[in-house]
Every structure is written in structure tokens, then in C-alpha cells.
Specification:
This protein is mainly α. The chain is built from twelve helices and no strands. Helices cover 74% and strands 0% of the residues. It starts with a helix and ends with a helix. It is found in: Cell membrane; Membrane.
Length: 294
């Protein structure tokens, strides 16, 4: 199963690289006016922290706006997908290779997230986004608090020392259903990383196991989405190229950092990421409610 996923990730790298590369070569005389050093810097920063589980889209949007690297907001969705597809695939390839995770668990959870995103693109987007963001925000913060209490030794509600690398029985079914739902919610803009971290921990798996699961889940989606943006030209070529270069470097460095951490330190990092993402969802929900009241 793990070999199948590795083959799929490598195939997607080849697919994305060829489609992206051909488009860059075709427009090599007019790639854009963006700054290559700034673009590379944005890619390094955002994908370094993306590898830690924070996510790349929101930080990239912020940095692109602050540095004024994009003059047409209509190209932002395409730029985000195209520029981060390769780094996300690389994340998945590294974590699948170096992290000890039970192959069947990994395969089934990644497959369920992919199926969920397909269904979500058709049906889930009709749900009230602000309510979903509010519920997800509250759930993540509560989970993070429980994790922190457990790590500090105050409670053992989450079980003793999560070291499992695979799921079986009812826990496996919960994981499949949970990742299916997270894949569907991605189509509404609800990031998969932090909720996946929380779910994996609550099911008793080692926090490190979340990294191949969440990265491979997203890596199976982004290359396909980016193809249409490339074909229609709805993305910033030079900016995306720079972010891709910086992102690859950021992923390699961050992956070594993550996999070399003591599991206790890693768990605290996961807790911080989950809290950060939870408050981000609550903030988005609050802004959506405020906009409706105006």
C-alpha cells in the first residue's frame, strides 16, 4: 500500500512538473514582473511552516499582499494551487518514506480524504460556511486544551503516550469517516492539516503519524486542481515559479527538523498549531457574521 502511494506521488510530481514546466517555457519571454528573490523567500517561509502543519495558503496570501507581488487578485487561487503543489507532493514523499506508519491505515485515510473532496465539490459547499468554521474552531481549541492537559500530566483522558502507527477496528472506521469529512470540508476552505492532527491524536496514534497522512491527503488533490489553472493561464507564472523553488528548499529543511524532534516537543508544536488554526476559524466565522449584519 505504501509503495502504491509513493508511486502515485512520484507520478503526480512528474505530471505537475511537465505541465508547469511546458507552460513556463512557452511563456519564457514574458513570465511576469514579480521579484524572483521575494517570491523565493515567500515560498521558503510558507512551505517551511506548512511542513509543520500550519498551512501555506493563508500565509502566502498575506505575504503576497504585503510585498505587492500580485496585481490581479483573480489569479490568487491559481497561484496558490500551482505554486504549492510541488512542495506539498515533496512533503508527502518525504513523510511517507521516513515516518513509520501502518500502510493500510495510511492508504485508506488518504483515499477517504480524496473521495471526500470529490463529494464536497458537489454537495458540501452548500453548507453555511460561517457555522462550519465556528464549530471547527471550537472543536480544535477544545482538543488542543485536552492534549495540553494530558501532556502536562494533569489528565490521562487521551490515553497513555500515543505511540501507535496504525488503526484497526472501530478506530480505523472512525479515521476513514473523519478524513472523508475533512476532505469534503476542504472544498469550503477548511484546511485539513490541523483537524487531521487532532483526529489522529484523539484516535491514539503518534503525533508524527499525522504528517504523512495529512500531507499525502492534500498532495493527492492539488496537482489535479492546478492543471486547469495552468492551462487557462489564471495564475502568476514568475511568482509561482519562485514560490515553488523556495518552497522545495523550505520543505526539505523543515522535514528534517520535524522528523528529528523528540515526540514530546513535537506534540507541543502540534498543540500550538491546532490552537492557532482554531482561533483562525473562529475569526473567519466572526468576520462572516459581522459582514452579514452590516
Amino acid at each position: 500500500m505504501k509503495q502504491v502511494l509513493l508511486f502515485v506521488m512520484i507520478a503526480f510530481i512528474g505530471l505537475h512538473g511537465s505541465v508547469f514546466g511546458r507552460d513556463l517555457f512557452k511563456h519564457r519571454k514574458n513570465l511576469g514582473k514579480e521579484s524572483m528573490p521575494v517570491s523565493i523567500g515567500i515560498g521558503f517561509i510558507t512551505d517551511f511552516f506548512d511542513t509543520l502543519g500550519i498551512g501555506a495558503f493563508a500565509p502566502t496570501t498575506l505575504l503576497v499582499k504585503v510585498t505587492k507581488q500580485l496585481d490581479d487578485d483573480r489569479k490568487l487561487p491559481g497561484t496558490l494551487n500551482v505554486s504549492h503543489a510541488m512542495s506539498c507532493l515533496l512533503e508527502a514523499l518525504i513523510f511517507i518514506t521516513v515516518v513509520n506508519v501502518e500502510p493500510l491505515t495510511l492508504f485508506l485515510l488518504v483515499a477517504s480524504a480524496t473521495a471526500g473532496s470529490w463529494l464536497g465539490s458537489k454537495f458540501v459547499t452548500g453548507l453555511p460556511e460561517k457555522k462550519v468554521q465556528f464549530v471547527m474552531g471550537c472543536a480544535l481549541i477544545v482538543t488542543a486544551v485536552l492534549m495540553a492537559l494530558k501532556q502536562s500530566g494533569m489528565i490521562n483522558i487521551l490515553g497513555e503516550g500515543n505511540v501507535a502507527t496504525g488503526l484497526t477496528g472501530i478506530k480505523l472506521m472512525i479515521g476513514i469517516v473523519g478524513n472523508f469529512a475533512l476532505g469534503a470540508l476542504m472544498t469550503m476552505g477548511v484546511g485539513l492539516y490541523a483537524p487531521c492532527m487532532a483526529m489522529v491524536y484523539m484516535l491514539g496514534l503518534s503525533p508524527l503519524v499525522a504528517f504523512p497522512i495529512m500531507s499525502a491527503s492534500c498532495a493527492a488533490l492539488m496537482p489535479v486542481a492546478s492543471i486547469n489553472f495552468i492551462k487557462t493561464g489564471e495564475y502568476a507564472r514568475k511568482l509561482s515559479f519562485g514560490i515553488t523553488i523556495g518552497g522545495i528548499i523550505g520543505v526539505i529543511i523543515a522535514a528534517k527538523f520535524v522528523t528529528g524532534l523528540d515526540i514530546t516537543v513535537l506534540t507541543w508544536i502540534v498543540i500550538v498549531v491546532i490552537i492557532y488554526t482554531g482561533f483562525t476559524y473562529l475569526q473567519k466565522s466572526h468576520r462572516a457574521v459581522a459582514a452579514q449584519e452590516v
